[in-house]
Structure formats: C-alpha cells, structure tokens
Specification:
The complex is a heterodimer of chains A (483) and B (1035).
Chain A (H helix, E strand, L loop, with lengths): L14 H6 L7 H10 L5 H27 L14 H25 L9 H21 L26 H34 L3 H10 L7 H34 L11 H27 L8 H32 L2 H12 L3 H13 L7 H4 L2 H28 L14 H24 L5 H7 L3 H4 L18 H4 L3
Helix pairs in contact in A: 3-15, 4-5, 4-8, 4-9, 4-14, 5-6, 5-9, 5-15, 6-7, 6-8, 8-9, 9-10, 9-14, 10-11, 11-12, 12-14
Chain B lengths: L11 H19 L24 E6 L8 E7 L2 E7 L12 H4 L1 H5 L9 E3 L6 E3 L2 H17 L7 E5 L4 H13 L5 E3 L5 H10 L4 E4 L6 E5 L10 H12 L7 E6 L4 H4 L3 E4 L5 H10 L2 H11 L3 H13 L3 E5 L6 H15 L6 E7 L8 H12 L5 E5 L3 H4 L6 H6 L3 E4 L13 E2 L10 E6 L2 E5 L12 H10 L14 H8 L3 H8 L4 E3 L26 E8 L11 H5 L13 E3 L1 H7 L5 E7 L3 E8 L7 E6 L33 E12 L19 E3 H6 L19 H5 L19 H6 L27 E6 L8 H10 L7 H4 L11 H4 L8 E7 L9 E7 L9 H4 L5 E3 L5 E3 L9 H4 L6 E3 L34 E3 L4 H13 L12 H5 L5 E5 L6 H5 L5 E2 L11 E4 L1 E3 L17
Parallel strand pairs in B: 6-7, 6-14, 9-10, 9-12, 10-11, 14-15, 15-16, 20-24, 21-23, 26-37, 27-36
Antiparallel strand pairs in B: 1-2, 2-3, 4-5, 4-16, 8-13, 17-18, 18-19, 20-25, 22-23, 22-25, 27-34, 28-29, 30-31, 32-33, 35-36
The chains are: A mainly alpha (483), B alpha/beta (1035).
C-alpha cells in the first residue's frame, strides 16, 4: 500500500529494498492463487487443531476445578502471592507487542520486510492479548467478580481504585485488544474482498461480503483505506509503548525490592518486543515451510527481523545489567540482598536461563550466517520464548520470596494445576491461530501485490511510469479481483 | 379506615401480612446466592440474655493443674471464647494458649457423643443408652466388691484440685476402693517433693521482680514447669523494670522457651545440672573446672556466674530436669535459695499455687501398672488421664491394662486408654461441669457450666452418685445430694448462696483440699550418667509447651507453631548445628533415634540451642487413637523411646543412637529465614545504653493541656519521618498522610470532632487506634496467636483432612503450612542474633508481627476495588465482600501480614472446612467467616472497638481510656501488648508510645505504622562487652 518501493538501480543497490524483493513471485494471479490456496484444510491441520483444542480443554477443565476448590490447588506459597498466572500474563502481553510493532511502527518507518510477516504477527498479537487477558481473571481469588475492576455506574457509587495499577491494566489491555483487533480487521478488508470474489459457498461468500464491508476496489475506497490504515498505525504506535509500560507499573509502582524500579517501563517494552519477535519466528518459520511460502517470506525478511531481534536483545541485556547497577547504586539493602539472591540464591537457575536465552544466545545474530540459518532462528526463537517466560519468573517469584521481612522468606513450586493452565493458554492461543490461518490469508494479499516488481505492472502501466506505490490505484481491478 | 366490617375481599391487615410474607420470601429467594440460613430466635429469652450481647460465666480452666480463672464468653447459649478472669489472683486476666483452646475441646467433633460399651471381649465399642451403661458399671463393680477385691481396684484421675478429688475419695472409701491416683504427666515430681521438704508447699510462687539474678537449671518456668501463667506474669513484670530487672542465666542442655528468654545460656550435658550447681555454689575454682569438664559447660562462663552468684543478692536458683539426679538437684537449689536470700522475698510459699496438692507421684502410677501386669487389679476406672500415651513404652501400660478384667473410662475423648476400656461413660467437658478448684491458699475458684452439654455426656461425679445410690447400703449417704452440684454446695463456704454470690467473680475465699504432706526424702543423689559412648547422644524428651499431653486434638494448638522451633503439625528431632555438620544432616532429614527402650523416627531440626551431645524431642504428638481429625497419626510419640528403666519420672534422659534414614520430609515450619539481617525488626538495647542516654530523653510524653489530645504540634506542622531522641514519638501521627487521615489538613481542629458527625470537614475521627508491644516483656509464648484465632474465626489449615488429595497442599498434615498458608493474623517471628556456628552465644528475638495499620499503608492504593482502605479512626480496613482476590495488597505489604483464603475454609461443604460440626459453634458471631478467594488480616479487633463505641454511645458518654482491649492484648500472659487510642494521652498506649525504647519496624519505608515496639533490654554479664548485635539493625 503506502509502502514506498523504489526501483532497484543496479548502480546504487538499495539494500533495504533488496531485502523485500520477491523474485519468485511473478504476477498478481500467482499471489492470490498461492495464498488463497493455503486456506484449504489439511489432515495435518486438523490434527494440530485437535491437539490445540485438547490442550485448551485441559486448561479449561483445570480452571473449573480451581474455581471450585480455590486457588490453593495452584502452587502459591505466601508471600509469593503471584505465580505462574501473572508470569504467563506478562509473557503473553509481551508477545502481543511484536504484532503492533511490526504492523504499525515498522509501517511508519517504511521497513519493507514487514510486508510478508505482519499479518501473522498481527493475528498473533490479537490472540496473544486474548490469551493474556484471561490470566488476570484466572488468577483472581474470586474470578466471578472480575467486573468489579471495570468502572461501571452502580447505585452504591462504588468505583475502582484509580490509583491501582491493576485498574490501569484493565484499560491498557482492553484498549490494546480493541485497537489491535481493529487494526487487524482494517488491514484485512481488501483481502476479505478477494476471498469473497473467490468463494463459491454461498454462506461463506455472504460472510466475507459482510466482512469486506462491500469493498468495490474504488479509488475512493483505497484513499480512505490508506488514510485509515495510516491513522491506526499512528494511533497504535504509542500503545506499543504504553501497554507494556502499564503492565510494568504492576510491578514498578509497588515497593517490593526487585520491582520498585524506574527502569521497568522501557525494560518491559524492550522485553515485550523481543519476546514478540521471538514468537513471530516460532510461528512464521514453520508456516512458510508448511504452506510453501518460502518465496514470500524470504530469507532476507528473516534476516532483517533477526536484526531487530538482536537489537532488542541488546536493549534487554542492557536493562538486566542496569538493574544490578541500580541495586548497587541505590544503597538500598533490601534491593541489594534481592539482586544477590537473584543470581546466587535459590533461583539462580532461573536467572541463568533468563540471561543465557535472552542475552547470550541472541548474540549469535551478529553473524550473518546464523541470521540466515532458518533452523537456528527457529531454535533460537524457542530459547527466547523460554527465556522471556523465565525473565518474568525471575521478576515475580524471587522478588516476592525475598521481601522485607526475612521471617516470611519462602520458596515456590507450581503444581500440575499451574502447568495445566499454562498448557491450556498455549492451546487457546494456537486454537485461535490455527483457525485463523485456514479462514483468512496469513499473508496480506493486497500488500504483497504492491511489492511485486514493477515489471509485472508495466503491461498495464502508463508508459514511462517507473512503478511505485501510487500507480496501482489506477488499476484497482488488478488488486481486488482476478485478472 | 371504614367502619363497615369487611365481609369480603382482603382486609388491610391480611393484605399487609401477605405482602410482608411474599416480600420476605421474594427477598430471601431472589436476592441471595447462598443458601438461606434459618435464624431461630428465642421465643422466651432466658434470664439476662439478650440477642447479640455476650454473657460471661466465670469458671475455672482445667487444661493443666494450675486452675486459672477464666471468663467464658457465651452468646445464645454457646460458649465461644475464653478469656482470663481479671479478678482471679492467680492469672490476673491472662490465659495461655492451652487454656484458650479448651473451647475447642468442648466443641471437639471427636468427642465421645454418648456412652459406649464393648459387649464381648475383642469386640468394638458400641453406643449404648445411659441406663444400660450405668447398669453395666454397677454390675461389674458389684462383682468386684462381692469378690472382696475392691481394695485392689484402681481409679486413675487426671489431676485436679478442689472439690471433685475430695468427693471422689469419699465415694471410693464408701465403695471400699482405695484412694484415687491423681496423675499429671507434666508435673515435676522431684521438684514438688523438694519444695515440700524445704518450703513446705508443693509449688511456691516466684516473685521474680524482687530478684537481681535468676539462675535456672533446666527449670522451664515459661514452658510447662509449674503454673506457667502466673510465673510468666511475674517474669514479665520483673523484666519490665528495665534497668532494675533481674539478669537471667539458664543452665541446661537445651534452650527451651524459658532458656531463650535468658540473657545467657550455659549449655551443659543432660543430667549434669547438679554437678554444675554444686560447683557454682561452692565457687571453688578447681571444683568449677572439674564440673565444667564433667558437664561440658564452658569454664569461663561458670567462673563468671559463680562470682556473680556470690556478689548478687537477692538471687534465685531454680531446678528442673536433672535426669536421675533431679531430686538431688531440686533439694540442692531449694536449700541454696535460703542462702541466696530468695526464700520469702522471691520464693513465696505464702502465695503458693496449690496446683499439685494431692497429686500422685509418677512412681506410684508405675507401681500400679506393675500390679496390673501381674493380674492383681480387677477393676480400673480412668478419667481424663491417658497413661497409654503419656507413660514411656517400657512401662508396658497397654499390655498391663489389657490384663485388667473390667476397665471403665470417664474420659471425654476417645484416646489410647479409653479405646481399650470395656465401658465408656463420657464426662462433661470442664466447661459444662460444676466444680470448685483450689487455686491458691484460701482462694476457691468456682467452676460452673458455660453452656448446656454438647453431647450425651454426664458429669462423672453424678454418675458415681447414681452408682452409689444403686447400692442400698450407700443410698442414704447420698440421699441429700442427688447431684454433685448439691454435694459441692453443701461444702462450699456459705453453701449455695455463697456459691451464687461467688459465681460472678469466680472466686471465693475458703479451703477445700488438704495439702499433701511431704513424703520424706526421695532417692539419694545419683551420680550423673556416664557420657554416651562414641557416636551416641543423650536423648532428651520434654513436654511441648503448647500441646501439653492432651492438646493434640485441638487444631489451634496443632497449628500453633512451637515457640522455639516454629514447627507445627509434626514431630521433630532437635540436633545441634555442629552435630548436623558432622553427620551431614539437613533440616527435614528423617532421623532414627534408638534407645534401649525403643525407637522413633522424625525429621531433624537443626537447633542452635541444644547441647552438642544431645538430641531432643517434644512430647504431645504421635497419638494413635486420639481425635481422628486432628491428632491421630500426626507426628511420633517420643515416649516410646524413653528408656524408663532409669526411673518413674517421665522427662528422663536416655542414651540414644542417632542415624539417618536417608529419607527427607519438608519441615512444617512457619520460619522463613531465622536471621533478620540487621533489618531492625526485633531491636534490642542494653541497660548500659539506656542509662547512658541523655537525661533530656523524653521518657514521658510532652505535657499537654488537660483534656487536650496531644496532637497539636503534629497537625499544624507535620514532622518529617526521621526523628531522633528528644522528638515526640507517635504512632503514625507525624505523617502528613496520617494527619490528613485525621482530618488535620482540612481543619486543624478536626481531631476534636467525632467521626460520625455529618458536618465534620473530612468525616474523620479524633482517634488513632494503636498498639505498643514491649519486647522486654514478650516471652514468645504465643498465647496471643490462639486468642486471635478464637476471636477472629481464623481457620486452621493444616489438618490432614484439609490436605488430602488436594494439589498445592503437599498432601501431608501441615502441608499448607509448608506452603506458607497459615492464617496467623498475629504471628511470632523468632530471630536468632549472634554467631550461627552452633556456639551458645546466640540470642532469640521474639517479635509479634501483625497488621501495623499504617497511616500511609502500601496495601491501600494498589487494591483495584477499594477492598482495603483507610478508616477514619486510623484503621486499615479490609472489606471481605469487596475483595476480588488480586493479592496485590499482600505483595505490597512489607510486613507480610495479609493472609489469603486459598480454599473454602469457611464453607461447610468443602473438604477444607476448618470447623467440622460442632466446632463451628465456636465461631465468634461478631466476626465474619471469610469465604474462599478473599484476603484477610488483623483488624485490630474492630468488632471490639465498635462494641465499645456503641456501648459508650448508648450510655451517652465517651469511650473511657483503657475501657477495652483487643484479644491478643487481653490474653497476653506477659502483658506485653497494649492497645488503645494513641491520640488521647489518657490511654496507656499513648504514654507507652513515647517510651525511650520505642521504634517502628521498617520505619524507613514511611508507612507510619500504628504499632510501636519497645526495644528488648539485654542484661549483660557484669563486665561483659556489649555484643555487636544489640540493636539488631542500624536505626
């Protein structure tokens, strides 16, 4: 769409645009055919969906059991009052950050490599936030009263405590969910139209017709669409920073040693983006293989994303080191005790997992050969997922177990209930994601068509027009409909 | 209204009736998500009973032999809370943990619910009607008497003082049976006998305040050695004298709770106290050196103590323990006390406790068991006592008892002994019974029922009268006294009228029981046992200070962490840190302790306060047939490994081999880290430091105008948090936030106006409820914790049935506590100060920790739903109904005093229900039972505050200073806790809050807490340098 794609001048090769070339994609028909072709359900997909639903059901049934019995069936060990659920909440919120970053910020920055991965990332965002949003409720002592956190008019004139970061969380998460799903939907409108035109089943066709908002591929529609998309991108950009900042306030606003730090908002945002990109790799690498989309999601794209991953890893690593420095510099004995405990105490192994996965292993991405090694990228992404889960573990558990009063220093060990619900959250997330990939195109058809080399268009373009972003509006029928 | 009679249609009154009924039904059905409970009001109120208002019955505690006076609080005919009787001269309003838990004995679900009989030998006990049960007893007793064997029958009674023993002996005599055996398994026979010999009374009172030096040779006067509540009151009063308080040195193999309260501990081998005592009295350097070598005590410490004992008058020495030489040790110290000037001033025979008058020495019980095992005993009756559990296994009680042809139990609970009996005629609980106790010379303590019997039980004395009346020869003797109550009234001074007059206060003057004469010299001094062979240990068994011998069926006591080791719901073996290093033992490693008498297995607890060659275990757990919910199969009974051949006394020293089993179990402990890491939680100071403090130090609060709350300066100019000596020290009142909470920032005069006045500028109160806790007084006894459980409906969480098949609870007794889920709104933190290498030079700091009701509470702003907020009178309030359970408040609480309902402890249909019927009758009707998923914490007994305010309002007056207090302060046998309004200088708490020893915990966090601690005072040995650990924190 509005991404500016300049022609490659052989004398001055533009690396940035070279990254996004799709040499194996020849024309629009191929794009539409190949991408819509991925929507056909396969046996493997049904198997994967079954596994996801099974995992989700395990989690759901465990939750029902937990509601009936009480939270004691989980591994809580006061004063470790927050455990796997809050860790997993932050984990999923963090993952939800990459999508908006890629679709909004990179869009505004005109980073072309986002084109082929952004739809998957955006869907991942929406489902990750949907997953994350469950956990604050899951973790409540009385989850059936969760709506008391929402300000609604009532005759008792009772309002939430607006000083509490948990109330800010409610706003942050709901806002983020709303905006990111709107963003996802807006981006999907031209693709809905493409699906509508291809669809033969009357009911599905009708649904796609409604969802495409009657998209007729007109100039006016494209103009409005581009404006809306740009506006939402601008609107979402601060959210990327704010949502995880607010989540970090859950910790930073408290007085708990190890939580009470001003570095938390940037540190959390960097960590969130880092974990999100990790999850993007985890998702997109198998997808491009199984859906035969390697010539869309090229190694160049992965290479570029890996650089982003490396950058955020460095930011996160810096934050880790800064935290130790702050603890030393603060002269705050509780803080210092905690940070010594963090690396040498009972939970040293969790800190070691965190540091190795998030700080050390991503350093391999400095080497281009590793960046372009898909197997390594996938493996690394799993390590990053693990490391980022443990980062939240290191923040939540050791801090609470080594607080001010040494008499109340304890341990923590999750039970099968915690693990089942964690598993259930993955089941829930992948259930939605798997359903998504077979209902809607995982690559943005319309946007990819923009990336295609101008040579494809020359047959239709005005003479002398070198191509680029603007001209396709003159040939709207090439985009939304079949040639 | 029409004059015309309504002949048809609906009349107004009927319409209103129907409307009301329909409306009520709709309301009941439509608006409640819970089952609608039925409230059945009294149709006719019993006399002096008002719904919602408590009645108090003065009666006597029968949990141990001491006979403290108690007030049983009842509501709607149910006793639910026991408090010390302030009018009672023995306990002066205080009550220990065991005493308060008596109400859980009364309402115990595992009581005998009616008489039981074993119809054929080897069969099960079956329920039976009282008439039939009495016939069975009558028949069997008659047979014994007809056979002429009545003289060989036995009646074993749990020791008590007062009317019943007199009645019982009279009845036994009439029936031709010998006098009863009155057994108290915890009593120290040797000391009692020595006291009789030297002081002429079984147990003198100890006026510690008069002493300058106390030396205890394993005399655990705060644990189970004698009448602990009066002793603790005396000790705390002595310690409260600060500069003039006595120094306390403890000599013994194990630092008990008493030992932890000593300023110095001199470890010695078990059974060697006598050698040490003799050397100390002699003061001869070579003798001391020899004693030090023999006993393993450090010679320097002994030399210093000997010199101190020479120089200090008056001093008092106390004996306990001593192993085989116990009697010699007790005699030695008793005579030594005369030399030290203690007798008459510190050791007061005139205020003696008569708790042990009429008690049978343990040796007689062992002799009786011998006769049983020889088949000489045709009939045994047991009431209250449980020798099958309390006697050492080598005494072979069970085997001997089984040989008795007919055994009847009058016990209230199924226990090891009564399960072996052929007939069970369950007695009333003491709170359902009539009686009189003899607490002190000339002081009678009345015992009256606090409620109707819970089950189909009968008071044993009434049963005995019934049996006697079945014998035509005896019937005339009891013709006038059909019940024990009438029998007792006849002998009570002033008769029934006298009793009625005494009932409101619970005490009367008079004497019922005769003092037992001294039985002559006991065993000759026995040389101390040879040191155990290489690789062997002394095995010391001591009575648990919280469980006693029969407290195991009360969940409060099982859940109450041992004051020393902080272990609950479990038995443990104490080993010294050096032994642990040598043998590679870690906390929780299961050890096997094997003596010549038997063997036990229990997890290890590494305890710095135990002598290196010694391992120790507490008795009181390890029941096999006691309360199936709360006691059976929990822990082990160390008595099975006590080598009883060395004597009759229970608390003997045996020699044991200790080995690791290779298994491990988590310790059920409430202890996190035992080190406070200089965080200033439990602070201490020395006498020298206090004396050196500048004279300007405001020991007393700044004088204020009469009638003015002393807050002027603070409201006008809030002072910063940091303060030094000389500044006024107030609980949370110097804070801008707190001043705002008092309305001070809105209107400087706001604090003079009542919180409920509609025109009040901030709707704020003129009060600041606050508390002071004097660590110089606190002994760590933990009575406050049980008081809090009783008052505030706190669930116990460790019973096996609460953890069975439940993830997250480890599935073991106390598993929830291993997970840190105990609900102790007030807990006792016990920190070690000093070297951690196992040397004797360490100190214990006891810190009662409860919600600090911060003026600037970290918990409040983080709650998303306002479930916790600041009340106008300074309370930090938790609204259970509003709580959704995010638990953020707990995370943000630096004191960690918030507790979460992980399970439905208060929901009867849950497996974790904490109050199985009828234990839920104990629930305080003024306090909510919390549901699952909500946070709870100390409320400063807000129900008591509101009750006092309401009472004052009804009477048209202000709440008077010190008019009421909270449950923990009320119970505290050290009087360490003082509660009140710190904004009003007429309250004691307001004065104490400005004490020179005052400090707040974590003051640097600007929480402006309402709990003020007064530093512990250390009394160092003369000439000893101040230890580096004195302050316990850089403040």
């Amino acid at each position: 769409m509005a991404t500016t794609v300049r022609p490659v001048d052989p004398r001055r090769p533009n690396v940035a645009s070279a990254d996004i070339q799709l040499p194996a994609v020849r024309n629009y028909t191929q794009v539409t055919d190949e991408i819509i072709d991925t929507l056909r359900p396969t046996k493997a997909w049904f198997a994967a969906l079954s596994v996801a639903i099974l995992c989700f059901l395990i989690g759901a049934l465990t939750w029902i059991y937990q509601i009936y019995m009480g939270l004691g069936v989980a591994g809580y060990n006061p004063p470790v009052m927050w455990g796997v659920y809050i860790i997993t909440f932050v984990f999923w919120v963090g993952i939800g950050h990459a999508g908006t970053l890629i679709s909004a910020i990179l869009y505004l920055f005109r980073a072309g490599f986002r084109t082929t991965i952004y739809r998957a990332a955006e869907a991942m965002t929406v489902f990750a936030v949907m997953t994350a949003g469950l956990f604050p409720i899951l973790h409540l002592g009385r989850p059936w009263k969760f709506f008391w956190l929402i300000p609604y008019p009532n005759w008792r004139l009772l309002w939430p405590q607006f000083k509490s970061p948990l109330v800010w969380d409610v706003f942050a998460i709901l806002t983020y969910l709303t905006v990111s799903s709107t963003f996802l939907y807006i981006g999907l409108i031209p693709d809905f139209a493409a699906l509508r035109d291809r669809e033969t089943h009357p009911i599905r066709k009708r649904i796609f017709a409604v969802l495409s908002l009657g998209w007729r591929n007109s100039d006016r529609e494209w103009r409005h669409f581009a404006r809306a998309y740009l506006f939402l991108a601008a609107f979402s950009t601060p959210l990327v920073l704010s949502v995880h900042s607010v989540v970090s306030f859950d910790f930073a606003v408290s007085i708990v040693p190890g939580w009470h730090a001003t570095i938390f908002p940037p540190y959390f945002v960097a960590g969130a983006i880092f974990s999100g990109i990790g999850m993007v790799f985890t998702i997109i690498i198998p997808l491009r293989r199984w859906f035969g989309l390697k010539h869309y999601v090229t190694i160049n794209h992965l290479d570029a994303a890996a650089k982003l991953c490396l950058f955020t890893s460095l930011v996160v690593g810096l934050a880790y080191i800064t935290e130790f420095w702050i603890a030393w510099y603060s002269g705050h004995e509780y803080e210092q005790t905690y940070f010594i405990e963090r690396v040498l105490g009972k939970w040293w192994w969790a800190a070691a997992i965190m540091l190795i996965c998030n700080m050390v292993l991503p350093l391999s991405l400095f080497v281009q050969r590793w960046r372009r090694n898909v197997v390594w990228l996938f493996t690394l992404s799993l390590f990053i997922n693990l490391g980022m889960w443990y980062e939240r573990f290191v923040i939540v558990i050791p801090s609470l177990s080594r607080e001010f009063s040494p008499w109340q220093w304890t341990g923590y060990a999750p039970t099968w209930v915690d693990w089942s619900i964690l598993l259930g959250s993955f089941g829930w997330f992948f259930m939605w994601f798997l359903l998504f990939v077979k209902q809607l195109p995982i690559l943005a058809i319309a946007e990819i068509k923009e990336v295609l080399p101008p040579a494809q268009r020359r047959a239709h373009a005005l003479a002398g027009d070198p191509g680029g972003g603007a001209p396709q509006k003159k040939y709207p029928e090439k985009l939304g409909r079949e040639d | 209204m029409s004059d015309k009679p309504a002949t048809s249609g609906v009349r107004r009154r009927e319409f209103l009736k129907v409307l009301g009924a329909a409306g009520a039904t709709t309301a009941a059905i439509g608006c409640s998500t819970e089952d609608v409970g039925k409230l059945i009001p009294y149709l006719v109120h019993p006399d002096q009973t008002q719904p919602g208002v408590s009645n108090y019955y003065a009666t006597t505690c029968r949990e141990c032999s001491a006979s403290c006076g108690i007030l049983a609080e009842t509501r709607d005919g149910r006793a639910f809370k026991l408090e010390g009787n302030p009018a009672h001269p023995l306990n002066r309003g205080a009550l220990c943990a065991r005493g308060q838990a008596a109400v859980q004995g009364l309402l115990n679900p595992d009581r005998w619910r009616g008489p039981m009989v074993r119809r054929q030998p080897g069969g099960e006990l079956e329920p039976v009607a009282w008439d039939e049960a009495l016939s069975v007893l009558h028949q069997n007793l008659s047979q014994v008497r007809l056979a002429g064997r009545a003289g060989q029958a036995l009646f074993i009674n749990k020791h008590e003082t007062g009317a019943f023993p007199v009645f019982l002996d009279q009845w036994l005599e009439a029936m031709g049976l010998p006098s009863h055996l009155s057994v108290d398994p915890l009593a120290d026979d040797a000391v009692i006998e020595a006291n009789r010999q030297v002081y002429g009374t079984a147990w003198p009172a100890f006026n510690f305040a008069a002493a300058r030096l106390i030396v205890s040779f394993s005399a655990d006067f705060l644990d189970a050695w004698g009448a602990t509540v009066p002793q603790q009151l005396a000790f705390a009063d002595a310690r409260a004298q600060v500069e003039n308080a006595p120094r306390f040195v403890y000599v013994g193999p194990r630092r008990s709770l008493t030992g932890l309260n000593a300023d110095e501990w001199i470890p010695c081998r078990p059974g060697h106290e006598l050698v040490v005592a003799q050397a100390l009295q002699g003061g001869n350097a070579s003798q001391i050196a020899q004693a030090a070598q023999q006993s393993g005590a450090p010679v320097d410490a002994l030399n210093r103590l000997a010199a101190e004992l020479q120089a200090t008058r008056p001093a008092v020495v106390l004996a306990g323990g001593g192993g085989a030489a116990a009697y010699a040790l007790a005699m030695h110290t008793a005579t030594w006390n005369q030399q030290l000037g203690a007798v008459g001033s510190i050791v007061r025979a005139d205020q003696a406790s008569l708790a042990y008058e009429g008690m049978t020495p343990g040796s007689e019980l062992v002799a009786a068991v011998m006769r049983m095992s020889l088949g000489e005993v045709p009939f045994v009756a047991v009431r209250g006592a449980n020798p099958a559990f309390t006697l050492p296994a080598p005494a072979n009680f069970a085997e001997a008892f089984a040989r008795v042809p007919f055994k009847v139990s009058f016990s209230s609970y199924p226990d090891e002994t009564s399960m072996m009996c052929d007939l069970v005629l369950p007695d009333h609980h003491p709170l359902e019974s009539w009686g009189v106790a003899q607490a002190m010379p000339g002081v009678l303590s009345v015992q009256q029922p606090a409620m109707d019997p819970v089950f189909q039980t009968r008071q044993s004395a009434d049963v005995l009268i019934d049996i006697a009346r079945r014998d035509p020869a005896l019937a005339p003797q009891y013709a006038q006294t059909l019940t024990f109550r009438e029998w007792m009234f006849q002998r009570f001074p002033g008769g029934m009228d006298g009793f009625t007059a005494a009932a409101p206060t619970g005490i009367a003057s008079g004497t019922l029981s005769r003092p037992t004469p001294a039985t002559g010299p006991g065993a000759a001094p026995v040389p101390p046992a040879a040191p155990p062979a290489d690789g062997e240990f002394y095995f010391l068994v001591y009575p648990s200070p919280v469980l006693g011998s029969d407290g195991g069926n009360k969940p409060w006591l099982q859940e109450l962490a041992d004051p020393v080791t902080k272990i609950a719901w479990q038995s443990w073996v104490e080993v010294s840190p050096r032994t642990a290093v040598r043998m590679g033992i870690e906390n929780g490693d299961i050890l096997q302790v094997e003596t010549a008498g038997g063997r036990v297995e229990a997890p290890a607890y590494i305890y710095p306060g135990i002598q290196e060659n010694t391992v120790a275990m507490a008795s009181g757990r390890g029941h096999t047939a006691y309360s199936e919910r709360f006691a059976a199969n929990i822990g082990v009974n160390p008595m099975v490994a006590v080598d009883a051949r060395s004597g009759a006394q229970a608390w003997m020293v045996s020699t044991a081999r200790v080995s690791r089993t290779g298994r491990h179990t988590p310790l059920v402990t409430t202890e996190g880290s035992p080190r406070q890491r200089d965080r200033g939680i439990g602070q201490a100071t020395t006498v020298a430091a206090l004396l050196a403090a500048p004279a300007a130090d405001p020991h007393h609060p700044t004088p204020t105008l009469p009638g003015e709350p002393g807050l002027e300066g603070q409201h006008d100019q809030p002072e910063p948090a940091g303060h030094g000596a000389g500044q006024r020290f107030g609980p949370g009142l110097r804070a801008p936030v707190a001043a705002d909470a008092q309305g001070g920032l809105v209107d400087p005069n706001a604090h003079r106006q009542g919180m409920y006045r509609f025109d009040h500028p901030a709707g704020m109160a003129n009060r600041r409820w606050a508390m002071t806790i004097d660590l110089a007084r606190c002994t760590g006894c933990s009575a406050c914790i049980v008081a809090c459980y009783a008052e505030n409906n706190i669930p116990t969480v460790g019973a096996p049935y609460q953890t069975r098949n439940t993830p997250g609870t480890l599935g073991t007794a106390g598993g929830n506590i291993v997970r840190g889920r105990e609900m102790t709104w007030i807990r006792l933190e016990r920190y070690w100060e000093g070297p951690a290498d196992g040397s004797a030079d360490f100190e214990a700091r006891f810190v009662p920790m409860l919600c600090q009701h911060c003026g600037n509470a970290p918990c409040e702003p983080v709650c998303p739903v306002y479930a916790t907020y600041h009340a106008p009178d300074g309370l930090n309030v938790q609204v259970y109904n509003r709580c959704v359970g995010t638990r953020y408040c707990s995370n943000n609480c630096p004191y960690k005093v918030r507790y979460f309902n992980w399970f439905g402890y208060g929901e009867p249909n849950r497996p974790q229900y904490a109050w199985p019927e009828p234990m839920h009758w104990q629930l305080n009707p003024d306090v909510t039972v919390r549901g699952k998923g909500v946070m709870e914490k100390c409320t400063f007994c807000v129900q008591r505050i509101r009750e006092a305010e309401n009472r004052a309002a009804l009477e048209g007056r202000e709440v008077q200073p010190d008019e009421f207090t909270v449950a923990c302060a009320q119970a505290c046998p050290s009087r360490a806790i003082v509660f009140g309004d710190a904004a009003d200088d007429d309250w004691t708490v307001a004065q104490l809050a400005h004490d020179r020893r005052a400090y707040h915990v974590f003051e640097e966090l600007n929480t402006y807490s309402a709990v003020v601690y007064l530093r512990k005072v250390q009394h160092l040995a003369p000439g000893a340098p101040a230890p580096a650990t004195v302050q316990g924190g850089a403040h």
